[in-house]
């Protein structure tokens, strides 16, 4: 039997102050982005459904309003990949008295990777059936050798931007 780590639902992730604050911010440079998709899993074993919004604030408000009611959710970007939240760590002070900083990626929960489209930690896994790929009719990704985001079906090698340099 293959044991799969269960994915932490968004309502629990939102209890983390760094992640919650980052989620509440409109992604920079995206005021004009017109495509956001909220993925919704009503029940733990239930299927994923979706609802699309024109702007991030609309998608966020809908998510926040329904967060406690559903098992899990994601605000998914249909336009581009996003990096996880970063925190600024003070590294010292210059001779002129200015503070210097470096940026540190937010620590992902154990066993989770990062889906840059769903903008949240997910547990990537192999699928022989996936609601997204079945829907769009591209079964070649369901080859048992490609780990996918359980929410949006994104390939780990593409959507997990934390595994890339930059
Ligand atoms: Zn995803």
Explain how this protein is built.
The chain is an alpha+beta fold. The protein has one domain (10-23, 31-163). Helices cover 20% and strands 26% of the residues. The protein has helices spanning 10-13, 17-24, 56-66, 131-136, 156-159; strands spanning 36-41, 48-53, 72-77, 86-93, 99-105, 113-115, 120-122, 125-126, 147-148.
How would you briefly describe this protein structure?
This protein is of the alpha+beta class and 166 residues long. Helix content is 20%, strand content 26%.
Shape: globular
Oligomer: single chain
Instruction: Give me the number of helical elements.
Output: 5
Distance between the termini: 38 Å
Reading the helices and strands in chain order gives HHEEHEEEEEEHEH
How much helical structure, as a percent, in the residues?
Answer: 10-25%
Described by strand count, sense and barrel closure, the largest sheet is: 3 strands, antiparallel
Strand content: 25-35%
Helices and strands in order:
Elements: H1 10-13, H2 17-24, E1 36-41, E2 48-53, H3 56-66, E3 72-77, E4 86-93, E5 99-105, E6 113-115, E7 120-122, E8 125-126, H4 131-136, E9 147-148, H5 156-159
Antiparallel strand pairs: 1-2, 1-3, 4-5, 6-7, 8-9
Residues 115, 117-118, 122, 149, 151-152, 154, 159 line the site of zinc ion.
């Amino acid at each position: 039997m293959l044991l799969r780590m269960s994915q932490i639902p968004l309502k629990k992730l939102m209890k983390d102050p760094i992640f919650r604050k980052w989620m509440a911010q409109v992604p920079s440079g995206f005021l004009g982005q017109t495509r956001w998709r909220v993925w919704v899993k009503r029940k733990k074993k239930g299927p994923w459904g979706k609802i699309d919004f024109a702007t991030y604030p609309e998608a966020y408000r809908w998510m926040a309003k329904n967060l406690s009611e559903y098992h899990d959710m994601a605000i998914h970007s249909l336009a581009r990949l996003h990096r996880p939240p970063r925190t600024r760590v003070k590294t010292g002070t210059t001779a002129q008295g200015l503070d210097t900083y470096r940026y540190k990626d937010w620590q992902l929960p154990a066993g989770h990777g990062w889906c840059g489209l769903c903008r949240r930690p997910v547990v990537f896994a192999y699928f022989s059936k996936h609601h997204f790929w079945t829907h769009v009719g591209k079964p070649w990704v369901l080859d048992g050798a490609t780990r996918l985001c359980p929410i949006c079906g994104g390939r780990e090698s593409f959507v997990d931007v934390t595994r890339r340099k930059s």
